[in-house]
Structures are given as structure tokens and as C-alpha cells.
Amino acid sequence: MISIKNLHAKIEGKKILKGINLEVKPGEVHAIMGPNGSGKSTLASVLTGRDGYEITDGSVIFENKNLLDLDTEERAREGIFLAFQYPVEIPGVSTTNFLKTALNQIRQHRGEKNLDAVSFLKLVKSKMKLVDIDQSLLSRSLNEGFSGGEKKRNEIFQMAMLEPKLSILDETDSGLDIDALRIVANGVNSLKSKDNASILITHYQRLLDYIMPDFVHVLFDGKIVKTGNKSLALELEEKGYDWIKVKHSSLETI
Amino acid sequence: MSSDDQILEEFTSKEYEHGWSVNFEADEAPMGLNEEIVRFISHKKNEPKWLLDWRLKSYRHWAQLKEPKWANVEYPKIDYQGIKYYSAPKKGGKIKSLNELDPEMIKTFERLGISLNEQKRLSGIAVDAVIDSVSVATTFKETLSELGIIFCSFSEAVHEHPELIKKYLGSVIPAADNYFSALNSAVFSDGSFCYIPKGVRCPMELSTYFRINAANTGQFERTLIIAEDDSYVSYLEGCTAPMRDENQLHAAVVEIYAAKNAEVKYSTVQNWYPGNKDGTGGIYNFVTKRGICAGDHAKISWTQVETGSAVTWKYPSCILKGDHSVGEFYSVAVTNNYQQADTGTKMIHLGKHTKSRIVSKGISAGKSQNSYRGHVKVSKRATHSRNFSQCDSLLMGNQCGAHTFPYIDVDNSNSQIEHEATTSKIGEDQIFYCKQRGLDEESSVALIVNGFAKEVMNNLPMEFAVEAQKLLALTLEGSVG
Ligand SMILES: Nc1ncnc2c1ncn2[C@@H]1O[C@H](COP(=O)(O)OP(=O)(O)O)[C@@H](O)[C@H]1O
Ligand SMILES: [Mg+2]
To answer: Nearest residue of A to residue B458 by CA position?
Structure first.
């Protein structure tokens, strides 16, 4: 589905990504873990085409297309979705209205007709259940005055509505209590299919108690320094990130 | 370059949609302004002597006044002798039925999306269409007259209902009120007149559509709305003009009289030509609008969406004379390129327990300047009165300006005044968020801006709201983000 090769990126002249290699196939769940500042959100931003990043080397192929040639909205319409670490507020625009506009633009891109009001509402109703989100929340201004947990649930709700091929969840678990975490995880699990894939960016392994990853990668200083399965996450939980830091920092100083 | 700046650049290519003009044969006054011109206009309209005298008095007063300079706008000196003060399409004017109307004119309005053909109108809106200085058609007159509602051109009202005109003309806005109202009182050519009798709820929206067509002419129309006790009317005003390199002057006067328990809603979507992206041409829009809640429990509500004009100077106001009367002002003003807007309201509380609400949303883009200017005055007698003002500014890019000038005067101790103001920038992260969900840049900007203006847009009648939303997006596309 997506193939990232030797990806290097800079922001404001500062090297952040220093040669990322990652291959995600349909049906897979990949977890990317790593200490703060290691470049996890930067990777998400680069994959979704945010302004301000300079790609200095490498390539990203998504569904046979050169992803880095596409605009942000084209990538989204091709099926890339980012659940934001910090979702923004848009005053005066309801989630429902926002999603109707988004969904119709995605459908137009696929050559499909706009959904009529009734079908759209049906879709909303069915997806609301998945993340246990309240109708009243959806008619309020997007994310305005939402609690941390409501914002994250709203992100997963949007993901459910837009049915992306590749979902990138950036620290969707942080700031959630156990109940909210379970709801979010349930949402993600029930959306999982053999045709889509997800990349879960997380700082803690507890999300992985609820969503079983096929692979766990450790990102440190702009590189994936270790790849394993669920047990790697548990090992990180036990030992912390320090042993990785020591190992790789010392490599660099040699 | 940040994405905000790119949006600004990309959007500067769109052009004003209504920038065409049609060649009607016109009946015009010679250029310039003097007593002879005032007499010429009055004579053309076959007016009674009292009205000519009123005009002359206004003219003489105007001639002694100086153009006001306090607004936060700058423009080259207007040459009042370089303007034609009267231009009427020859085939317009005195027609008995719509069938006699010049087909060109019907087409002109259809291009603007306004059908003068009653059968073709889907929604219940009666229209008074004004081209240059003259009202050319009023629809649904008969239907309305069955309820005793008078809806006709101002000139017609002068002849058909002189007692009403004599009583109310200048009663809310005296001719001498300000420079532009004095000018308008001297040379006004036409406009709309509306009278809702006691106890009648007007069953359809009444609307006036103004179009400046001729070159080098000013437009000076006058609207007078009278709502008797316990009546209700919702009034819409729309306007466009051709693209011309010269600046054209528009100085209108709108007076509203609301008697006991009457309610008048006045909505405007102002889309005069704003000039091109280098700031050449465009309408100077110097308008005086004021309503009086003369009776107890009366209510006047102004809603305006201001997208056009090179320079806007406009403060739709309410005099809250009756006890428990209510005044509202909802405004969205969008400026782009080199546009300048200085707009706001005055709420004058005279009666006890009077309430006013001001919601102003300014959106500035390009190199434009957008000012809110408001005055809330609560007199000594107006005890237990309340005002709430909310002034929000949204900036796009970093070359534009947003300014707020609130003046508050309270002469008693048990009234309550609240004022809130915010300024925000349309965020790169908001646009990125939208784009990540599949929205293109234009839709993202349109969505964010319409969200910002929502509280005001919600006050527009349905048919108008959709138009206004598109217009907001278009104005910003055409000039900003
Ligand atoms: N706009 C920016 N300008 C400069 N440095 C940045 C910017 N954004 C992120 N960084 C830096 O890039 C590094 C990686 O950040 P980030 O990708 O957010 O890390 P993570 O998500 O793994 O915590 C950090 O050192 C951070 O300070
Ligand atoms: Mg991060």
C-alpha cells in the first residue's frame, strides 16, 4: 500500500527525518513508537503534505502513485487520513457540515455523485455508534470547546466517515482515560479490513493492549532503529527509551 | 512562502461577476450640481412644489457643509461637479404593466438572477427594480394591495400617497443630518416606498434591487418604510454595478419608522463593484440608514453583508424611543485588495427597558482596511436598558488592517452594557486540517469564512443566505482567501 524509502526531510533547515524505510501492506497495523522529539509527527506531516517541510532525499509510493508529487487534498482524496495529535477548532462550522463537504469532494474525485441528505444522515448515524459519539457534538462548531477525549473521538469518527485506505493516528491515545481509550480502540478495530491499513504513532504501549499491531517500529532521531512485534513494545515499556538512546547516541559519537 | 500568502496570490485573479453594462438609451441631466439641476430633477419627476422646496432647502444646506473626514478611509477628493445627478433609461419609468417593460431591461435583471416576471418567481419575494436613478418595475403590487400594503417606487408614492411622504420624509433622518444625507435629499431620484398598515404581517419578502448602469452618474436613491402598530415586514436590498475605471458615487438614504409593537427586518447584500485588484475604480458607498422604534415594544433589525464598494461609509442605526423597544445590527463586512470599509451602527436608547444587540464580523484580506465604528448611547431616561456588542475580526494575510472604534455613553446607573471583541487570523493549520480531509483550498477558505460569519448569515432570509454565502466565498476568492 505504501512504500517509504530512505526518506529525508528538513524543517527550517534542521534535519529531522534521516532516512526512513517503511513498507505497509493492506490489512496491516504498524505501530511507531519513540521518545518525544524523535520525528513521529514530522513523518505524519510529510506523508500528508504539510507546507514547510523540505524533502531532501528518498521516495514514497502510495498505491502506485508518487505521493510526494500530490497536493495535500489529492493525497486525502486518494485515501490517506491523519488523525491529528492536536485537532484544530473551526468556529461556526459543524462536524456534520464539514464532513459533508469533505465527503462530497472525495466522492467527486472518485467520479461518484454527491450523497443526498438522507443517505448522508444514514451514514452519520451508523458511524456514530462505532465511536459512541453524541449527535449534539456533531452539530456544534468543529472541535470548539471539545474536551481532549471528544476531540480524539471526533477524529476517529471522521476516519470512519471518510473510509480511508491508510490511516495515520498521531498520538490518538495520549490524554485519554481508559474508557475513552477503549472506545477509540474499538472504533479503530471495527474499521480494520483486509483492504486498509493503519500506522499508529504512540508514545506508550498501552494503546497496543487494545489494538494488536503486526509490527512495532522504534523511531529515534529521525530513523527507525528497531523493528519487532508486540513484544518489542512491552520491552520498551519495561526498560524505557533510555537503552535505545544510549545505544544510538553512542553510535553517533563514534 | 507560507500557504496563507500563496492563497492570497492565487485568489487575486478572479473578477467581479456583475461587471458588464448594457446600453440603454438614457435621459440624463447635464453634468454638475447647482439649483438648476435640483429643479431639473424635480421637474422631470413632475413633483409638487413642497417637495421641490424641500430639495432646494437641502441643497442650500449641503452647499455649506464640508465632507466628513472622521472615517478611517482615504480616497481622492470627489469632484461633485463632475457627476451626472440624473440618468433614467428612456424606456423605463411610467409603465402600467410589466408587459410594457423594455425586454432589454428584463434581460438585464435576469442576468442578475432576478426575475421581474411574477409567474417565474418561485419564492415569495416582491421586487422593486431600480436602474440608475429610476424604479423600472415593481412586482406583486396587486397581491400586496389587497392587504392594504403599499409597495411602489418612491416617485409613485409622491403622487399617490403624498400625505404619507409629507409626514415621514426626513422624519427619521433630517435632510441636514449629515453631508451625504443632505446631498441625497437634494438630488434623490427614486427608490422604494413601503407601507404596512396596522395589524398586517406582510406575507412575502419585499425587496429592492439597485443597479448602477450608466457611466459618470451617481446613484441617490431613497427608501422609506413605515410599519404601523402590530405589523411586520422583512425587507431585502441588493445591489450591483458595472466595472468602470472611474469611481462612482452612491449616496442613499433609508428611513424606517416602526410604530407600537411593529417589527421591521432590513437585510442588505451589498455587492457594488469594488474596483480592480490594483484599487482602480469601484463605488464610493456613502449611505445613511436609520430606523426609529417610535412605539413601545417595536423592533428594528438590520442585517448587512457588505462585500463590494471601493469605499464604504455606512452605519445603519436604531433610535429606541418606545419603551421595551429592540434594535439589532448584524453585519459581515468583507474587504479585499484595496477596499476600505468603515461601518457599524448607532444604538440610541431613549425608552425604558430598551435592548440592543450588535454583532459585527469584519473580514479583511489583501491590502484592505476594515473598521468597525459603533456608538451605544443610553440616555438618562432609558433606565434598565441593555446592550450587547460583539465585534470579531478575521485577518487573511498580513497586509490588511482591522480596526474597532466602539463609543459607549451611558447616562444612568442601572443599564447594562457588554462589549466583546476578538481578532484572529485565518490559520495555516485550519486550512491544512481542511485539506487533509479532502477539501481544496477555495472550499477550505469558504468554509472557514462562512463559519466565522455564521451568526450574521443565520439572520438572512433563506433565499438570500445561500446567495450571500457564495458571495462571501467569491469575494475572497476573487481577491483574498
Ligand atoms: N516547525 C518546526 N520548526 C523547527 N523545528 C521543528 C518544527 N516542528 C518540529 N520541529 C522539531 O523537530 C523534531 C521532531 O518533532 P516531532 O516530529 O514533533 O516529534 P515527535 O512527534 O516524535 O515528538 C523536534 O526536535 C522538534 O523540535
Ligand atoms: Mg508528535
So the answer is: A92
Report the residue of A48, A73, A80, A141 to disrupt the B interface, i.e. the one with the largest count of B CBs within 10 Å: A73
Residue of A38, A40, A42 best suited for mutating to test ligand 1, as the one with most atoms within 8 Å of CB:
A42
Cβ–Cβ gap A90/B433 under 8 Å = yes
pLDDT value at residue B478: 46
What's A9's DSSP letter? E
Task: Answer yes or no: is B440 within a domain.
Answer: no
**What local confidence, expressed as pLDDT, does residue B7 receive?**
37
Q: Closest by alpha carbon to B164, among B175, B149, B147, B144? A: B149
Give the position, in ligand 1's atom list, of the atom nearest the Cα of A43. Answer: 17
Mean model confidence pLDDT for chain B: 84
Closest residue CA from atom 2 of ligand 1: A11
pLDDT tens, position by position, B117-176: 554 444 456 667 766 656 666 677 788 899 999 998 899 999 999 999 999 999 999 999
Check if A33 has its Cβ closer than 6 Å to any atom of ligand 1. no
Whether A218 contacts A33, CB under 8 Å: yes
Examine the pLDDT at B5 and tell me if it is beyond 70: no
Phi, psi values for residue A183, rounded to 5°: -65, -45
pLDDT exceeds cutoff 80 at B458: yes
Scanning chain A, the segments in alpha helix (DSSP H) are: 40-48, 72-78, 95-109, 117-131, 135-139, 148-162, 178-191, 230-239, 242-253
Cβ(A202) – ligand 1 distance below 6 Å: no
Rounded-to-integer distance, Cα B473 and Cα B243, Å: 19
Nearest ligand 1 atom to alpha carbon A42:
17
Please say if the pLDDT value at position B338 is more than 80. yes
Tell if the CB–CB gap between A91 and B451 is shorter than 8 Å.
yes
CA distances from B211 to A49, A97, A188, B269, B276 (A): 46, 34, 56, 13, 18
Whether residue B453 lies inside any domain: the answer is no
Q: Find the residue in B nearest to A99 (Cα).
A: B437
Residue to test with chain B: of A50, A54, A72, A88, most B Cβ within 10 A: A72
CA distance B216 to A95: 49
Distance B120 CA to ligand 1 centre (A): 60
* Residue B19 or A78, more confident: A78
Query: From the list A51, A76, A97, which residue is nearest B437 (CB)?
Result: A76
Q: How many CB pairs under 8 A join A and B?
A: 73
Name the domain count of chain B. Answer: 1
Q: Pick the atom of ligand 1 nearest to A45's CA.
A: 17
- Residue pair A67/A60 in contact by the 8 Å Cβ criterion: yes
Instruction: Pick from A11, A82, A173, A220 the residue to mutate for probing ligand 1's pocket: most ligand atoms within 8 Å of its CB.
Output: A11
- Quote the domain boundaries for residue B156: 22-431
Is the distance from CB of A244 to CB of A227 less than 8 angstroms? no
What pLDDT does residue B29 have?
82
ipTM: 0.95
Let me know if residue B4 belongs to a domain: no
Residue B417 falls inside a structural domain: yes
Residue A222 CA: nearest ligand 1 atom is: 14
Q: Which of B13-17, B208-212, B221-225, B462-466 has the weakest average pLDDT?
A: B13-17
Strand pairing report for A29-33 and A215-220 = parallel
The stretches in chain A having pLDDT less than 70 are: 246-254
Q: Which of A172, A199, A168 is nearest to A81 (CA)?
A: A168
